[in-house]
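Minimal example, chain plus magnesium ion.
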Amino acid sequence: MPESWPRVIAHADMDAFYASIEQLDDPELRGKPLLVGPRSDRGVVLTASYEARPFGVGSAMPMARARKLCPQAVVVAPRFERYKAISKRVMRVFGDFSPAVEALSLDEAFLDMTGAEHIFGDPEAIGSRLKDAIREATGGLTASVGISATKYVAKVASGHDKPDGLTVVAPTEARQWLAPQPVARLWGAGPKTQQRLAELGLGTIGDVAAADPRWLESRLGKAGSHFHQLAHARDPRPVATSRAARSIGSERTLTLDVKSPTEIAFQLRRAADSVGRRLRRHGYVAKGVRVKLKRSDFRLLTRQRRLAEPTDRTEDLYATAIALLPEFGDPGPFRLIGIAAYDLERQVFARQLDLPMGEGSRSRRLDAVLDELDKRFGPGAVHRAGDLIRQSPIGPEVNLDFLLDDED
Ligand code: TTP
Ligand code: MG
């Protein structure tokens, strides 16, 4: 990333989220004005499809008024369970792109993409890949994405070209880009504050940027200097990662409960392989490893350990998992075996710290070769020799590889 990008922050927001899901699920509704909300006139509109918005309807408007403004709109009752399920998919995509995801609601999040250029490319490429991945994961929904070096500008940028927008604002241009926009776009400026700013003769963000910060503060209190900072595109707030977005796991429910140490080790190896591969694919390193075992009586047991050094190596994950086994104090049998790597961060410099010919680089090279074969021939085509020494054959299993560990 050019030096002018001290951080790369993306804000993604799904377009007309509830309404788009209704249109996705019912092709009859596509291309039509649609209101999601209670069918009765009491209550408010939760959201309106983009076809309905030119009529002046939108979120939080009383349903009665919205139906007057747009009588031809179809009204659909909300299906929150469905929206939550789709939201989960979207959040998983976010987790695929960054270990630092701050969800603001079901359909919206900040992603810290700093250091991701070697995986995803420049900010434009990051944005279009993110949009593509969301479309693919949801079966056709669009998101609008804004990218800049601060949360504030990224957020304004994602709303700039809705729906299906992608707006990249280089940090050096951020102030200029904000300047002509109305003060309503200042974060935290509600209708009352907007009114107050108008009375002070401040109509655009540029007006606020040009004003004397002490004068602003004398008129608006603390908010005055806050707005002045935002207007200058200054916003040091970090992306506050939620815990759920910080692990990558792989687990399987087995067709036969297993007890033999060889079989348990085999399952751990397979899970470590999957987790390691995904860490490397996403450019993450993990600072901890968790092992999950489910006993025949369905009791779930977990043990975890922090690593001395963050890693993305299968060998390290596997060795840590094996070392955790005695801590369970339970010989099995187990019906589910899994591993999760947690406390993820972006792999930026770690690779260069490897000594060229040490044991570490050997296992890293092996990982790279296996990743490549896996990519070419599909998962499971290649096995480590140690894994072929298996004692009990165990038919097909449910494979529950998941990126975002649900932390149950
Ligand atoms: P938003 O992202 O604010 O709106 P949206 O996704 O419908 O449209 P946009 O393209 O402008 O982003 O909110 C996401 C969902 O949250 C929205 O589809 C419905 C729900 N919601 C409410 O239930 N009540 C509200 O007041 C708002 C604003 C949203
Ligand atoms: Mg939205």
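Residues 349-357, 388-408 have pLDDT under 50 and may be disordered. The pocket of magnesium ion (ligand 2) is lined by residues 13-14, 17, 107-108 (CB under 6 Å).
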